[in-house]
Amino acid sequence: MGNPTDRPPSDEPAFGPRTTTVPRRRVLILMGAGALAAGGGLGVLLEACAGPPIPVELDFDPATLAPDTPTEVPFTFTVGGGTVQGSTWLVRQPGGDIVAFDPRCTHALCVYSWSAADGQFKCHCHDGAFAIDGSVLHGPPPRPLDRFPLKLVGDVIEVDVPSGFATPRESL
Questions:
Q1: According to the model, what pLDDT value does residue 79 have?
Q2: Is the pLDDT of residue 138 over 80?
Q3: Does residue 39 form part of some domain?
Q4: Residues 6+ apart with CB under 8 A from 150
Q5: Is residue 16 part of a domain?
Q6: Full domain range(s) for residue 143
Q7: Contacts of 42 by beta carbon, 8 Å cutoff, 6+ apart
Q8: What pLDDT score does 80 carry?
Q9: Contact 87, 103 (CB under 8 A)
Protein backbone atom coordinates (compact mmCIF):
# COMPACT_ATOMS: atom_id res chain seq x y z
CA MET A 1 0.00 0.00 0.00
CA GLY A 2 1.25 3.52 -0.74
CA ASN A 3 1.13 6.75 1.20
CA PRO A 4 -1.52 6.87 4.01
CA THR A 5 -2.97 9.98 2.40
CA ASP A 6 -3.76 7.91 -0.70
CA ARG A 7 -6.48 5.97 1.15
CA PRO A 8 -9.96 6.13 -0.28
CA PRO A 9 -12.54 8.13 1.72
CA SER A 10 -14.24 6.14 4.48
CA ASP A 11 -17.38 6.47 6.58
CA GLU A 12 -15.34 5.43 9.64
CA PRO A 13 -14.30 8.27 12.02
CA ALA A 14 -10.59 9.13 12.20
CA PHE A 15 -10.66 8.10 15.87
CA GLY A 16 -12.95 5.47 17.27
CA PRO A 17 -12.82 4.54 20.97
CA ARG A 18 -13.38 0.89 20.10
CA THR A 19 -11.20 0.68 17.04
CA THR A 20 -8.23 2.95 17.78
CA THR A 21 -5.52 1.35 19.91
CA VAL A 22 -3.79 3.36 22.60
CA PRO A 23 -0.23 2.38 23.55
CA ARG A 24 0.10 0.86 27.02
CA ARG A 25 2.75 3.42 28.02
CA ARG A 26 0.35 6.30 27.27
CA VAL A 27 -2.41 4.66 29.34
CA LEU A 28 -0.05 4.21 32.30
CA ILE A 29 1.18 7.80 32.06
CA LEU A 30 -2.39 9.11 31.97
CA MET A 31 -3.40 6.94 34.93
CA GLY A 32 -0.41 8.14 36.97
CA ALA A 33 -1.07 11.77 36.12
CA GLY A 34 -4.70 11.34 37.10
CA ALA A 35 -3.77 9.80 40.45
CA LEU A 36 -1.32 12.61 41.21
CA ALA A 37 -3.86 15.25 40.20
CA ALA A 38 -6.35 13.75 42.64
CA GLY A 39 -4.55 15.36 45.59
CA GLY A 40 -1.63 13.01 46.07
CA GLY A 41 -3.93 10.00 46.34
CA LEU A 42 -1.26 7.74 44.90
CA GLY A 43 1.12 8.46 47.79
CA VAL A 44 -1.59 7.71 50.34
CA LEU A 45 -2.46 4.49 48.52
CA LEU A 46 1.18 3.36 48.35
CA GLU A 47 1.77 4.15 52.03
CA ALA A 48 -1.32 2.15 52.99
CA CYS A 49 0.05 -0.82 51.02
CA ALA A 50 3.57 -0.58 52.53
CA GLY A 51 2.99 -3.12 55.27
CA PRO A 52 1.66 -3.45 58.79
CA PRO A 53 1.93 -0.47 61.14
CA ILE A 54 4.82 -0.26 63.60
CA PRO A 55 3.83 0.07 67.27
CA VAL A 56 5.82 2.81 69.01
CA GLU A 57 5.72 3.43 72.78
CA LEU A 58 5.93 7.12 73.60
CA ASP A 59 8.13 8.37 76.40
CA PHE A 60 5.40 10.62 77.80
CA ASP A 61 3.16 10.66 80.86
CA PRO A 62 -0.45 11.06 79.65
CA ALA A 63 -1.48 12.47 83.05
CA THR A 64 0.44 15.66 82.20
CA LEU A 65 -1.59 16.31 79.03
CA ALA A 66 -3.92 19.27 79.56
CA PRO A 67 -7.22 19.35 77.62
CA ASP A 68 -7.14 21.24 74.30
CA THR A 69 -3.39 21.90 74.57
CA PRO A 70 -1.49 20.17 71.74
CA THR A 71 1.81 18.67 72.83
CA GLU A 72 4.44 17.43 70.40
CA VAL A 73 6.03 14.15 71.53
CA PRO A 74 9.15 12.94 69.66
CA PHE A 75 9.83 9.29 68.95
CA THR A 76 12.40 7.10 67.21
CA PHE A 77 11.97 3.64 65.76
CA THR A 78 13.98 1.20 63.68
CA VAL A 79 12.77 -0.27 60.42
CA GLY A 80 14.76 -2.14 57.79
CA GLY A 81 18.00 -1.55 59.67
CA GLY A 82 17.56 2.24 59.66
CA THR A 83 16.44 4.67 62.32
CA VAL A 84 13.48 6.94 61.67
CA GLN A 85 12.84 10.04 63.76
CA GLY A 86 9.43 11.56 64.02
CA SER A 87 6.89 12.92 66.42
CA THR A 88 3.19 13.01 67.07
CA TRP A 89 0.94 15.77 68.28
CA LEU A 90 -1.13 14.60 71.24
CA VAL A 91 -4.38 16.38 72.07
CA ARG A 92 -6.59 15.51 75.05
CA GLN A 93 -10.13 16.20 73.99
CA PRO A 94 -12.64 17.74 76.45
CA GLY A 95 -14.20 14.29 77.00
CA GLY A 96 -10.81 12.90 78.08
CA ASP A 97 -9.92 10.88 74.97
CA ILE A 98 -6.45 11.42 73.52
CA VAL A 99 -5.85 11.89 69.79
CA ALA A 100 -2.44 11.39 68.11
CA PHE A 101 -1.91 13.39 64.91
CA ASP A 102 0.61 12.44 62.23
CA PRO A 103 3.22 15.27 62.20
CA ARG A 104 3.12 15.59 58.40
CA CYS A 105 0.85 18.06 56.61
CA THR A 106 -1.58 16.29 54.28
CA HIS A 107 -0.58 18.58 51.40
CA ALA A 108 3.16 18.05 50.91
CA LEU A 109 4.23 16.02 53.98
CA CYS A 110 5.93 19.05 55.53
CA VAL A 111 6.24 19.43 59.28
CA TYR A 112 3.69 21.74 60.88
CA SER A 113 3.58 23.38 64.31
CA TRP A 114 1.02 24.53 66.87
CA SER A 115 0.46 28.27 67.14
CA ALA A 116 -1.05 28.93 70.58
CA ALA A 117 -1.56 32.60 69.66
CA ASP A 118 -3.75 31.66 66.68
CA GLY A 119 -5.17 28.45 68.17
CA GLN A 120 -4.29 26.39 65.09
CA PHE A 121 -1.73 24.08 63.56
CA LYS A 122 0.23 25.90 60.85
CA CYS A 123 2.20 24.51 57.94
CA HIS A 124 4.50 27.11 56.44
CA CYS A 125 5.31 25.16 53.26
CA HIS A 126 2.20 26.49 51.50
CA ASP A 127 0.34 28.42 54.22
CA GLY A 128 -1.94 25.60 55.32
CA ALA A 129 -3.79 25.72 58.62
CA PHE A 130 -5.69 23.14 60.68
CA ALA A 131 -8.02 23.44 63.67
CA ILE A 132 -7.25 21.68 66.95
CA ASP A 133 -9.46 18.77 65.79
CA GLY A 134 -7.29 18.40 62.64
CA SER A 135 -9.83 19.83 60.18
CA VAL A 136 -8.57 22.08 57.38
CA LEU A 137 -9.05 25.80 58.04
CA HIS A 138 -7.41 27.13 54.87
CA GLY A 139 -4.69 26.56 52.32
CA PRO A 140 -4.01 23.72 49.93
CA PRO A 141 -4.22 20.65 52.24
CA PRO A 142 -6.68 18.25 50.57
CA ARG A 143 -7.93 16.64 53.80
CA PRO A 144 -7.75 16.86 57.61
CA LEU A 145 -4.62 15.84 59.49
CA ASP A 146 -4.02 12.11 59.53
CA ARG A 147 -4.16 10.34 62.88
CA PHE A 148 -2.08 7.56 64.32
CA PRO A 149 -4.12 4.79 65.95
CA LEU A 150 -3.47 5.10 69.69
CA LYS A 151 -3.63 2.64 72.60
CA LEU A 152 -3.47 3.74 76.20
CA VAL A 153 -2.52 0.96 78.60
CA GLY A 154 -2.19 2.30 82.12
CA ASP A 155 0.21 5.20 81.82
CA VAL A 156 1.80 4.03 78.55
CA ILE A 157 0.79 5.52 75.19
CA GLU A 158 1.44 3.42 72.11
CA VAL A 159 0.85 4.75 68.59
CA ASP A 160 0.77 2.70 65.40
CA VAL A 161 3.03 4.42 62.87
CA PRO A 162 2.64 3.44 59.20
CA SER A 163 5.52 1.24 58.05
CA GLY A 164 6.16 3.69 55.19
CA PHE A 165 6.51 6.65 57.58
CA ALA A 166 9.29 9.09 56.83
CA THR A 167 10.55 12.03 58.86
CA PRO A 168 8.54 15.08 57.74
CA ARG A 169 10.08 17.63 55.38
CA GLU A 170 11.08 20.92 57.02
CA SER A 171 8.81 23.85 56.29
CA LEU A 172 10.23 26.76 54.36
A1: 82
A2: yes
A3: no
A4: 98, 99, 100, 157, 158, 159, 160
A5: no
A6: 51-161
A7: 32, 35, 36
A8: 80
A9: yes
Q: What are phi and psi of 25, to 5 degrees?
A: -60, -45
Which residues share a beta bridge with 73?
88
Here the CATH number for the domain that contains residue 123 is 2.102.10.10
Question: How many CB atoms lie under 10 A from the CB of residue 115?
Answer: 12
- Class of residue 44 by CB neighbours under 10 A (exposed 0-12, middle 13-18, buried 19+): middle
2 inside domain: no
What CA–CA distance (Å, rounded) separates 145 from 63?
24
Round to whole Å and give the CA distance between 168 and 63: 27
Model-wide pTM > 0.90: no
48 bridge partner residues? none
Count CB-CB contacts under 10 A for residue 122. 17
Contact 160, 148 (CB under 8 A): yes
* Structural domain includes residue 12: no
CB neighbours of residue 57 within 10 Å: 13
Residues 45-78 have pLDDT tens digits of 444 456 899 999 999 999 999 999 999 999 999 8
Q: How many domains does the chain have?
A: 1
Using alpha carbons, list the distances in angstroms from residue 151 to 82, 96, 99.
25, 14, 10
